[in-house]
Structures are given as C-alpha cells and as structure tokens.
Prior knowledge:
Elements: H1 2-26, H2 32-48, H3 64-74, H4 93-125, E1 128-131, E2 134-139, E3 146-148, E4 151-155, H5 163-177, H6 180-191, H7 198-219, H8 225-232, E5 246-247, H9 253-261, H10 266-274, H11 280-288, H12 302-314, E6 340-346, H13 363-377, E7 383-387, H14 397-406, E8 411-418, E9 438-442, H15 451-467, E10 472-477, H16 483-487, E11 492-499, H17 503-509, H18 512-535, E12 536-543, E13 557-560, E14 563-569, E15 574-580, E16 584-587, E17 597-601, E18 604-606, H19 608-611, E19 619-625, H20 628-631, E20 641-647, E21 689-690, H21 697-708, H22 713-716, E22 722-732, E23 738-743, H23 751-760, E24 768-770, E25 773-775, E26 777-787
Parallel strand pairs: 2-4, 6-7, 6-8, 8-11, 9-10, 17-20
Antiparallel strand pairs: 1-2, 3-4, 3-5, 9-11, 12-14, 13-16, 14-15, 15-19, 17-18, 19-20, 21-24, 22-23, 22-26, 24-25
Helix pairs in contact: 1-2, 1-7, 2-7, 2-11, 5-7, 5-8, 6-7, 8-9, 8-21, 13-18, 15-18
Amino acid sequence: MLSTAYYFLQVILCSAIMMGYYWFALRNKKFHQYNRFYLLAVALFSWTVPLIKIQWATTYASQQQVIRFLSVVADNNSELEAVIGSKGFHWSMEGIVSLVYILIAACLLALLIKAFYRIYDLLKKHSCKQVGDVFLIITQAKGTPFSFFRYIFWNEEIDIRSASGKQILQHELTHVQQQHSVDKLLIQLMLIPGWFNPFFWLLKKEMDMIHEFIADKKAVQDGDTAALAQMLLTAVYPKHRFDLVHPFFFSPIKRRLQMLTNHTNPRFSYIRRLVVLPLLAVVIVLFAFRNKEYRAEHPISVKNVLQSVINDVKASQQSGITVTDINLETVAPMKLSKTYRIVINPGHGGEDVGARGVDGITESILTLQLAKMLKEKNNNPQLDIVLTRNSDEFHTVVQVAEKTNALAPDLFVSLHVNSAAPIRRKGQASVSNPTRGAEIYLGDKTKTYDYDKSYQLANWIGNFLTQSSTTFQGIKSRSKGIYVLQTIKCPSVLLEAGFITNKEEAALLKTEAYQEKIVKAILQGIEQYLATIEKSQSITVADIGADDQLDRTKTSVEFGAQRAVVTNDKAGNFQSIKLEGNPYFKLNDKYKSTEGLMFLLNGEKVSYNQLNEIEPNAIKKIDIIKDPVALKMFTDEDVKGVVLITTKQAASFKAQNEGQINKETGTPITNINFAANVDESGNGSIQQQEPVSFPGGDTAWRNFLVKNLNRDIPVINGAPPGKCAVQVSFIVDRAGKISDIKAENDPGYGTAAEVVRMLSKGPVWNPATVNGKSVVSRFKKTVTFMISED
C-alpha cells in the first residue's frame, strides 16, 4: 500500500513539473500542434518515468536534504519492498483509502460507459449519412453540434447554409481530420486510475482548449475575430455535455477570440520550444508522432458535406454545385399529432389575370408558381397540401369557397400579389408607387368562421416572413370584408406576397430564391400554428359579472372583466386569457416586483408604472399570455408572461413617457406600432410603415457591435458570470441622425454607459417611414453582454 502511495506521489510530482513548464512557457502560444503532443507526452511519461530506476549520488552536504527527498521519490522504492502480512480480515485506514480509490475509479468508468451508450443511442435513433469517411447525423439533441471520431452530430436548428453554419461544420470536420477524439479517449482512460492527480484534470482542460484553437484556426481564416464571434453566438450554450465528444459551444469565448489575435514573436516561439531540451525524450516522442495527413481522391470539406446533404434531399446527383448554390430543405419536419389538410388557393387565373406588374408579369402566374412551390417544398407528411387549381384556369370566389368546404380542410391560405396605383401630382407626370412588402388580410371579425385562430395563423406566418428578411407590412382587414375568408369553414388568411407595381419587388418575386423564402415562411408559420393549437386542449368562455373578478391568488397578478376567454393546455394548466368589457389588471399587493413580466401597450414595450397612467375606460382589451410557445411570438427575452393592453383608440393614444417632442428641433416624434397593424375602423385606411433600421441590416449591426463595443467592461468592473442586457432608446430624425440616447435600464458594471458611448459614435441610421415619407421617431434597441466564467 505504501509503495503504491509513493508511486502515486511520484506521478503527481512528474506531472506537476511538466505541467508547470507548460503553464509558464507554452500555454496560450500559437504552436497548438506542439502543445497537443506535449500534453499527450505528459500523460504518458507521468506514469512511466517513476518506474525508471535512477541512481543518485550524494555530493555536497548542502544538497543532502534535497537529494534525500528525491531518493524517496525516485529510488524505485527500494526501501519499501517489504510486505507486512496479517491474519484475518479487519478494516484499516489503508483498506478504507483503497476502497475509496476503487469506488471513485469505478464511478468514472461507469460514466465513461454511459457516455458511450448515449452516443450509441443517438446513432440508433437518427439516420446516418456517409460523406466520404465522415458520417453526418441530423438531430435535435441538446449539446449538438459535436463530433466523435468520424461521426458529426448536427443540430437541425442551426442553418447549415449560413456562413456561421459552414464555419461550424468546418470546425467539426477539423476535429475529425485531426483525430481529436483519440486524444480525449486516452485522457479519459488516464483519468480513471489517475483521478487523484489535479494536474491530470488541468491537462484535460488544456487539451480541450487546444483542440478548439486548432479547429478555430481552420474554420476562421486570417484570424477574423468578428467571424469567430458571430459563429460562437449562432446558438446558445448546450444544456448537456458528452465528455467524449467535441461540442462546439463549450469553451470560454474570450480565450478563443484572444488566441486568434495573439501574435507571437517567432524568435521567442522557437526559444520556448528549445528550452524543453532537458526533457529530450518527451520532445523526441512529440516530434516523432505526427498526424497522418489525410489524402483522398475527394477530400472532406464543408462543400462536399453540404453537397452530399442536398443530393440526399433531392434524391438526385448534381454536378458542379458550389456552396453558394446549395439550398437545403428543412432537415426534419415538426412532428404533429395527426395529419392536417391545408388548402392553398392561387388567386385569380384564366381570363382573370389579377394585378399586372411593371414588366407585364401577371398576378395569376405568380400565385400559381408560389402555390406549386409550396406543395413541392413541403416535406412534412402530416401536412396534406391541396391546391384549388393546378393550371391557369378561372374559378369564381363562390366556386373556390364551395370547392374548399367540400375538402373539409383544417386551414385555408389564399395567395395573391398586390398592386398600388401610380402617384399623380398636379402638373407633373405620374410616377410609380414605391409601396412594397407582404401583407396578410383577415375577413370581417363578425363573419369569419374563427377569427381568433385566423389571427393566430396570420401572426405565425407574419413572424416567419419577418425572420426571413421579407418586408412585412402587418396584418390587416378590409372595410367590405373578403368573401372567401368569410365563407370557408376553417381558419383562413389571405397573403399578399408583395407589390408587382414596385419594380425592385416585382423582379424579386420572379426569382426562385425569393419565392422559396416566402413559401418556407408560410410552411413554418403553419407548422408552428398547428403545434400551438395542439398544446391548447380546451378553450373555455366564461361570462363574468361586472362586479366579479378572476383572482389568481397563486400568481403575481389580479385581473377581471365582464367577459373572458381562458386557454388551458392538455394538463389543464393556465396558458392565456383574453379580457374584454371593462377589463383591468394589477399586481397583487404581496408582489412588489414585475420581474419576469413584459408589458406591451399597443405593441410597444412599457413599464408597469406607465400602465397605471392609462385611463381605465380607454382600455379595449387585455391579453395575458403564459404559454412558452406563444411567448416566442413577442420576445426572445427570458420572460414568464406577457401582458398585452390594447386601447380603444390605439392610433391616437400616446404613452406618457419622455421624448414625444424632439427637444432639439421641436419636431413631433412619431410612435409607430408594428406589432398588430390591423384596421378594424371600417374605412380601409391603413398606413404603410417601415421601422428604423441599422444600415446593412442585422449582420451589419452584429459586426458593428463586435468592432466597437468594449465587451470587457463588465469583466473589468467585477461583474459575475451571466449576462447583462441594456435597453437603450434614442431619437432618429428624418436624415437618420440619432440623438437623445438614453439607457432605459442599467444593469451596472459600466454596461449602460458603454452602450450609450458606442451608439454616439455610430453611423447614420435608416429613418422610419410612414407612407414612404421619413419621420422623426424614437427607437429602442437591446444590447447584451455575455460574461463567461473564465
């Protein structure tokens, strides 16, 4: 027992010496392959060097104490070879220590076996696509994407077509090509008997980081830290880890970004490696074993993997395909509880060509193209897509309604494209109308089969249209109603895909790529709507007396109305409630905090105190939403509930907050509502609105943050790990210049001041427009600081 303990002490000492050299001379340097094999050598020689017999000779008295210590550690345990026998069984301290050692080692072995089983379970449950020597598995498992030997487990929620997706895929391919899984497995096996050695755990952590440095260098060319930052922020950190694999989003972001910008003097780089000559045996092994260069007729690359996936989806071989040409279908459709019939009506047809574009293209042709593509691109077997026409033929609206009702559909979507009359000014020639963007129309609220569900469907489709970078003008209705939407016996919407009287948008509508964006948004909206409906088992309508209230004493809010529509999920849990007829809402007295609640007044985020300033008789309805799926329609923030307040005259109501008049110019500031742009006034007058936007869109905004925001501010000021979200508001004038920058909240640690500073140094923004004219408006933006533990 003692000889074993002294051997373990020698193992710890050897690993401490070699890891100490690594920590002070090699760590965070850019010769990653060298460091990789050095750490592998540490793992090997820490166990073998203590077994080598070393003879020490006593020389000077001044060194006697040191040499005596080394002789105990490295004299092959010649003094400890006697074995003391004992009769009978008894518990001793040595026995207890041995038992603890064996139990912990057994637990680590069990965890290793469990990790193998979890990987095997993923392989068994998901289809596997071979691409050269690599196998690609598409899954929704938490912790993906990751690689394990020649297997890459890809998360279907990450778009493999995007620039970040391609970089992540290249990152995982590098792990495969460099055989990093072999390193991880060897170190895991070493940790089972060597769990007692803290330097082995440090070695494991550093090896993981070196693997990421190697893959980052391959995935992000020329040390582009902005590209790496965007790649790292494509997805959130996984909730589950697989110890044997290479999950992409696990390591400290800051250190990986710094490594790409670390420029080492080559002279000192070589010196650091030459100083290791006292450990000559380690260096020889380090340089003797190098990665075998992968050579194949068709080398594995991001392009080849993408091409293989698209070939598998389209079930046909394509030649000459490039990464930019690839257009993947949805990898895995959303699972629903049953098959739904969806009727798609391509508007107009035959002699009724509908609207005519600036270049002669007709509405009837475009809508038929969209409908056919929608049916073709649908890969969900639980969506039965039926078209009301498959050729250029004419049907009256009565015939369309009768045919649709005969099919007994679950949903109805009528496809159209819009037109706008030329602008005529007195004494001047008419000019084309610049109006553009998609719109969704609903039928008359009192005549539609199920207006609420139709509105939900429209909201989901509109949400995905916005996400696809398609200009979306909102959900609307016509004063005269829409016959087909009010006759069909199922939730129904009419989509105007764009304006063919706008030259630029007409050109887009004729392209296959833009049409695919639209039909993909429609299909995703339909799937999300059906998934939301399936979560809601029953809707109870309760007529409540004027003096009664719905008092949810177990929640933080109290609310009441003359009439309420309550939605519960399948388990009977409260999901949402719509209050109509003198509705009111307040926090229970015992709750002083509004944490976890978001308040939207006519679609604009406000505080609870601002709500108290509203006259009760000005409120038309209140919606309180708790359903996690529905919450995603309103915000990406981590909230437990959303309270929607709609006033009776939303267009004329102004929240009582600062900034309604530009203090510098005296110009009125326009409050624009983009959340629910529904015209129920009956006059058909609907404003065409465009919000404030950053020049270049979301991608340019992210690049601006990476280059100009000092993300180390909260770390420097001592912020704990987590995130700090700063919401700022500012006025954007007609020329796009911003002023009156305010931090709506301050999480502390200098974050609010840093965001205000960054915006004040920023470029000119794209101003908001109403009916094509620039207006002065106040805009809000949220900037989030992520503070890692390292």
